[in-house]
From TrEMBL:
Lineage: Eukaryota, Metazoa, Chordata, Craniata, Vertebrata
Listed transmembrane segments: 274-296
Residues of the Metaxin glutathione S-transferase domain: 174-237
Protein name as annotated: Metaxin
Job description of the protein: Involved in transport of proteins into the mitochondrion. Essential for embryonic development.
InterPro entries named among the record's database cross-references: Glutathione-S-Trfase_C_sf (IPR036282), Glutathione_S-Trfase (IPR040079), Metaxin1/3 (IPR017410), Metaxin_GST (IPR033468), Mito_Protein_Transport_Metaxin (IPR050931), Sam37/metaxin_N (IPR019564)
Protein's GO biological process: mitochondrion organization; protein transport
Compartment list: Mitochondrion outer membrane
Record keywords: Isopeptide bond, Membrane, Mitochondrion, Mitochondrion outer membrane, Protein transport, Transmembrane, Transmembrane helix, Transport, Ubl conjugation
């Protein structure tokens, strides 16, 4: 019997199995289709086979990262949550997924990664607290830059900048999308009856973080909570398919214990603080040298013999530990 495929995902919080929309989509679909995946949760994307999360490592050693590609692979393995859909329902499913990518996804990026208070108080804080040192110093900022580029790509504007006008436009489009989803769901348990499909996985992945996370600026969250059937939809999926995660408190949780990296195993807190200070001092000195704020003068001393050249000392790269 072949070994199961291995799925790498972000850790969960807020009563969710993962804090990532893409990871939630894949996790929900795998549950709906009954796919036997070996799950590895972590807070260091560099430890995944693709360098990003989610990532699926198949038993043929192929690596997939996009939720759509992972779902297609699972369908080829006979784990198809859309098996019972009619041709019209399949077309409707594709249309609503495209609608969410166009109207809802940009607002989610803005809500969690661009809106200043949400980003500083929730998003950056969560990743900084859960990532291992020294990744927590720079990786959240790098992730934010990538999300801004993704938002610009989705909006077709490379010069797009955060602002009140953009926020209003994004939230207006998202509210319109949420209203259409609510109308399509109606009083049904799932979007196409009594069994969940890939559309249910996409909707759950997009809505659950907005619903469960406590956001300082919760404009989109407030509108979602007025659509009772969508909030019940998310709660039912958590109860039926992720009961362990759904029972957890939606408040902040303690950072996980990271396994692995050299920096994680520093036994003394003061030594760890010293390392942090040395890293910061080195960065500031490098910046000063590069910008010309500080220069190094070479003084020839005839009385002293010039010392021999020093060979550069290299050090092996170490993999940083992450939650898992």
């Amino acid at each position: 019997m072949a070994a199961p495929d291995e799925l790498f995902c972000w850790e969960g919080d807020w009563g969710l199995p993962s804090v990532s929309t893409d990871c939630l989509v894949v996790l929900a679909y795998a549950q709906f289709a009954g796919a036997p995946l070996k799950l590895r949760k972590m807070c260091n994307p560099w430890r995944s086979p693709s360098g990003s999360l989610p990532a699926l490592k198949t038993n043929q050693k192929e690596t997939l990262s996009r939720p759509a590609d992972i779902i297609i692979h699972l369908r080829k393995q006979k784990y198809n949550a859309d098996y019972d859909l009619s041709a019209k329902e399949g077309a409707d499913s594709l249309a609503f997924v495209s609608l969410m990518e166009e109207k809802l996804a940009p607002a989610l990026i803005y809500t969690f990664w661009i809106e200043p208070k949400n980003y500083v108080d929730v998003t950056r804080r969560w990743y900084a607290e859960h990532m291992a040192f020294p990744l927590n110093f720079f990786l959240p900022g790098r992730m934010q830059s990538r999300q801004l580029e993704k938002l610009r790509l989705l909006r077709g504007d490379q010069n797009l900048e955060a602002g009140e006008d953009l926020e209003k436009e994004l939230y207006r489009d998202a509210a319109e999308c949420l209203n259409l989803l609510s109308q399509r769901l109606g009083s049904q348990k799932f979007f196409f009856g009594d069994s969940p499909s890939s559309l249910d996985a996409y909707v759950f992945g997009h809505l659950a973080p907005v619903l469960k996370c406590k956001l300082p600026n919760g404009k989109l969250q407030q509108h979602l909570k007025t659509l009772e059937n969508l909030t019940d939809f998310c709660s039912n999926i958590l109860l039926l398919y992720f009961p362990r995660d759904g029972r957890e408190s939606s408040g902040p949780t303690a950072p996980p214990q990271h396994d692995g990296g050299d920096f994680d195993n520093v036994p003394n807190k003061r030594r760890k603080q010293l390392l942090s200070a040395l890293v910061a001092l080195g960065a500031m000195l490098s910046y000063a040298l590069l910008t010309g704020m500080v220069s190094i003068q070479h003084v020839q001393q005839e009385a002293l013999e010039e010392p021999p050249d020093m060979e550069a000392i290299g050090s092996d790269d170490h993999e940083e530990g992450g939650g898992g």
